[in-house]
Amino acid sequence: MLDTFKSISLSYKTAPLQVRELIALNEDEAKRLMLRLRDFFGLTDLLVISTCNRTEVYYAFEKDLSADIARLLLIEKGLTDTDNYLPYFQFFGVHDEAVRHLFEVCVGLHSQVVGDMQIPNQVKQSYQWSADLDMAGPFLHRLMHTIFFTNKRVAQETPFRDGAASVSYAAVELIDELIGENQNPNILVIGLGEIGTDVCKNLEARSEANHKQANITLCNRTQAKAEVLASQYGFRMADFANLTDEIRRADVIISSVMRDDPLITPELLRDVTVLTFKYFIDLSVPRSVDAAVEQIPGVLVYNIDNIRNRADEALNQRLAAIPQVEAIVTQAVAEFGDWSKEMVVSPTINKLKNALEQIRRDEIARYMKHLTPDESEKVDKITRGIMQKIIKLPVLQLKAACKRGEAETLIDVLNDLFDLEKQSVDEQKHSY
After folding, report:
1. Where in the chain is the site Important for activity (predicted)?
2. Can 52 be counted among the known catalytic residues?
3. Beta partners for residue 56, in sequence order
4. Per-residue pLDDT tens digits for 249-274
């Protein structure tokens, strides 16, 4: 049977950020791990997914190698005390559970921000790695394309992807409303903690979606953090000492600075001339943008409550759509399960077809020399039709038996009746 799919998972549900950071894989590391797994265990159908919130390995193999794979992953990341990290992993050793988990991950049911729109693209990238290394067989190809189709159904048939369900994404979405989706404003991000970092990730996604190089500047008290993110996303970096000058040149300022008193005050902006509009999006608690700043002509301020209300509304809408999404996933998993089971009988079906075809050809060959070309064509057509009708019922019965989990008995009967094993051996002999 083909019930061999398994997976290991380390995610925000099982491990804190400092552990996830240690185990996260970039493209080169993911591909190197896949090659190691192929060389060590002979794995073929293999998928490695690594994002900021999860690192997962999916594989098809008769034996359960999950603990060994987790240990190898840890060693590849330089973590030799593997026993200390194994408890952070979740193992899916049952085929159906691993398949279902992958479906749910890909549509966003297990994302930290439920319905996350970035996860399908991240999974597609992981699938491309498998294809690049020739480590995606018929099973994985069919599984991934079924998942992508399911993801499209979720987007089209439910509100699960509607709106911005995280504060950082809602802030970036607000920019499109204020400036225009296809515009390219000068954006200044002040403060690069967890929220500021997430804002950067969403700004990069906005730039990719609009197919434009973003005019984004990062400003942080700790310059090293700004340097890392600026290098990662290709953004500009500014010195915190030049904050007023940077605000002057920016159209949108997103602030997520942790401090007791407002950072951006009317005094700080005293020499800043606002020619059209300047938008301040304050994601800090306490607020880092003084409310009095909005008294300056042309300045508009949006605080965390404005943004959170937008995010909460979208999140509630997504949560309400979860039963719809789960129903779509359940249907897709069942259909994929039927296909997986039918793969078990496809070799037998092909052997049966070949056996009957050989009988048909042998019998026709005995009489062809006495027939005209026109008569030969008619006989060939008639006998093909007879063969297709004969084989139709056994094929249907085999597929039905698959769904009932009773295919093996029918396979044995057909093998005995038509001596299909001998048929297979004869074909191999003739192929040399």
Report:
1. 101
2. yes
3. 9, 49
4. 999 999 999 888 899 999 999 888 88
